[in-house]
Amino acid sequence: MATALVLLCSCTSSEPRTQILKVYNWADYIDEDVRANFPKWYEQQTGEKVRVIYQTFDINEIMLTKIERGHEDYDVVCPSEYIIERMLRKDLLLPIDTAFGRTPNFIKNVSPYITRQIDATSSNGRVAHRYAVGYMWGTCGILYNKKHVPHADAQTWGTLWNRKYRGKLLMKDSYRDSYGTALIWAHRHDLAAGKMTVPQLMNDYSPQAIKFRSYVIFKKLRVLPASHAAYYTVTRDEMRRFQFVRGDLEGVVNIPQKIKKLKLSISLREDTEKDRVIRVSLRSGNGFHCRKMAEEFFHGGGHEDAAGGRLECSIEEAEQVVLRAIMAYKEQLR
Questions:
Q1: Among 74, 151, 208, 302, who pairs with 307 as Cys (CB 3.0-4.6 Å)?
Q2: DSSP for 193-217?
Q3: Using one digit for the tens of pLDDT, what is the confidence trace for 230-249?
């Protein structure tokens, strides 16, 4: 579910800020004709001119980090619903002004069900639907060719683990969707038996998980100030010690991005099953893009500012690859 939000920010410019509308959205979410016609419609509604500055993002966490750093002063953003709670908690939002020109208050027509889903993200005493309004809603599913896939196979997420479809599947490039699907399938029996709910499953931060995340950040994170980079390693022994469960370290690689002037954050984690296999995650910002580094040094790829890869070596050797990569990109990281 994507939601439009009004942000609490400030800006300075020679052009009156009241005549600028800054929007931060997913690509392809608003028709170009709508954007082109908006200034004329706005003037009809208010009698004032407006210029639209429209920027896009492809990952929620990158969007949130950029806003937290205060590099931009957006009026409207469109993140997924789970980000709303974080933004409310960090005091990044303003209430929606429902009195706008000659336009009726259409928010009254929002489905009660959608409003309840939005309000589930309320935080710090703030009721979420006063700060956010639903824009898109949907579910994840399986798209298949009925000439090659029986209908019964398409009725279960288990098909993704069916060996006869090995090498024939394409998965949406979304960590949240793919991880959520795998998590629900792995706990399907407990969910069916009513031992847990999906929200409980998705928000399971056990004391051990919290301890593990703290250990990684305070004990394992190595910051290289001169290179504007940081990285950390996680071994299989450490995962055993903290009773690691998939998802315990989700998002940790984004945390170093909050360090002032930092441009690159890398996570190295030993595979839980295969020896000499290292899982690599990269995040970037402040003008540096990590995708090319992921392709060149870690046999991977991804988005410009969120990429991943894999190495077949020891964790110590992987650490040396990271240092070589940072050295190779030292000019871009300055």
A1: 302
A2: TTSS-HHHHHT---HHHHHHHHHII
A3: 999 999 999 999 888 766 78
